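Our example pasted here:


***
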Amino acid sequence: MNSFKGLMKKEWLIGKNALLWLLVVQGGLVFISFLASRYWEVAGLFYMCTWLIIMMHPLIMILLILGCLSSDGKTQLWIYNPQSSAVLLGSKLLTSVLFQMVSIIFSSCLIFVASTIPVSYFQADFQVENKLGIMGLLKLDAFMLIVSILIAVFLLFLWVVYHALARVHSIKHLRWLFVSVLCLGIIMLRNEIVNTAFYQKLDDMWVIQTISETSMTMTDFKLGFYLKAGDTSLLASGLDVIGVVLLFLASCWLLDRKIEV
């Protein structure tokens, strides 16, 4: 446990500046859009930018997890560190998720503050219909965080596979092709499983409501964000959790093969 805390602290020290800059960029984007909307009297620009910062979080998760994974690559720490692969990968995965959580909460706070500014402050004849609310924001945050965790584990697996293939010298320069095929294969396999009668039957059992109807519409721009009410099956979600755990365990097993990065 102490070694895991030590690795977490190391990852925090390495990535805290990146997290700070990420928050500054989000705040700067909202502030610049605020000034631009006020100057040009285009309210839609401000509201679109405030929503953009939370919708781009899947891309942010990609940057965070790849940054954490590559931080030790050139030092060959994967080979010489005495800790287990689960501890090494788990610390990076958890750090990336925590960074993502902070970023999502921060962007939600910006959206909440932006929603309190009257539309007439920017453009008198502009209309915005907002049914989000605090609970809607929290549910959206939870949804984005779950998506981020799925992306993080998936990228973790693909990254480890890519470097594990470096030991096979005959295909070392074609690793990107094998990883791309593997990525598409996993996505197609999941889609096939989801469409099976067995999965569909599970999807109708032990259902709970997870997302209430939420929307934000800008009538003059004819743009809108809509998150319809949704139900989630605990059994079907359990299968997804098993899949994510298997990918993580596979990553740990490959890393224990002393891959070169």
Observations:
- Residues 2-40 form the longest helix (39 residues).
